[in-house]
Amino acid sequence: MIRTQILQRQSRYIFANHSINHCLTRRSYKTVSAVKTHLERWRELGDQVKPSYVRGLVEDFRHTEQFSKALEASEWMCEQRVFNVFPEDYAARLNLVETVLGLEEAEKFFERIPENMRDYSVYENLLRSYTKSEKTLDKAEETFEKMRDLGFLSKPSGYDSMISLYRKLNKRDMVKKLKREMMENNVKIDRPMELNVLSIVSDFKRDCLDPLWNKYKKEGKLMDDEYRIRISYLLKLDDVQGAEKIYQKWQPTGPKLDMSVPGLLISRFRAEGNESKVEEMVNWIRIKRIVMHLATLTLGLINLGLTIVMLAIMVAIITAIVKCNVWLFQLYPLLCVLFCGHIILEYPILFASVFFYIISSY
């Protein structure tokens, strides 16, 4: 167990020092080898390797936008069969294949996924890939109907993907149809989707969306998606100043900066030839990223401090147990044995260090 944890930390440290700038190209994906090399070392540990370690590694790579490495780790996990693979693992890999190698390769991979592994999460990722472009409308609609046949439309995400695509195509009738279908099937419409739908079917009248926006502001902090929808809506009304005011109030929820929000205004300013505004937006993005990194660092330091406090408390407890072992064993023998056994299994190095320190102090 300890060897596995140490190897996991070493792997993450080594991978973190690799350049991220070339993670999205086919060439970089083909030449990456460090990931599988380290995973093969994990495999030598046999049953001691926990699936959560490998899945956590994949997520770490995704969060740091090292998609090629995440894909290689995901491939190793699915192909080596060191432990049971679930539909969610295939869904994550499908998303990574589309990100790194493109939609065509993602479609080929989908065909290789076993039928019993094609659950909601897999089809959801496939649908999301198709709804990114207007050119794949037919495939998106075909996938959506397949999800309907399989009973996978009890959640809002599938509807949300199709509504976003129909919005790009300005197909208001289809948006109204899907909203009506969601209400008939008791599918929950979340706040971003409600704003999205209303902004499409309201015929661009400000008084239709403002009451709902004000209601959400009173309910609590607005999410990135809601700001993006609101800004997009105002820009369609040619209310650039209003969109700027909303943008100034935006506080990114993180942990990564959602570039699609400032991207709306940047695209508008570039179309108008307003390069000074574009430069202003770019500078703001740099500053905001620094602020977000500092906030993340502060949170990390707080968590580290809490961890140190918890370890200090644990050391105190173990010290008390070791020093008062005779009295504790006499009064609570079973409880003492179980607790000590748990500490030894979970924190062997810490327990051994404290025990050695106490023994050597006599």
Describe the structure using short key phrases.
single chain, 362 residues, mainly alpha, Serine Threonine Protein Phosphatase 5, Tetratricopeptide repeat, 20 helices, 77% helix, disordered N terminus
Instruction: Please outline the major beta sheet.
Output: none
Indicate the CATH class of the domain at 1-111. Mainly Alpha
CATH-assigned fold name of the domain at 1-111: Serine Threonine Protein Phosphatase 5, Tetratricopeptide repeat
Report how far apart the termini are: 31 Å
In sequence order, what are the helices and strands, one letter per element? Answer: HHHHHHHHHHHHHHHHHHHH
Radius of gyration: 26 Å
Could you say what the CATH architecture of the domain at 1-111 is? Alpha Horseshoe
Count of helix runs:
20
What class would the helix/strand composition place it in? mainly alpha
Q: Quick check: average pLDDT?
A: 77
Shape: globular
For this structure, the quaternary state is: single chain
Q: How helix-rich are the residues, as a percent range?
A: over 70%
How much of the sequence lies in strands comes to under 5%
Which stretches are low in confidence, meaning pLDDT under 50 for 5 or more residues running?
A: 1-8, 12-32
Per DSSP E runs of 2 or more residues, the count of β-strands stands at 0
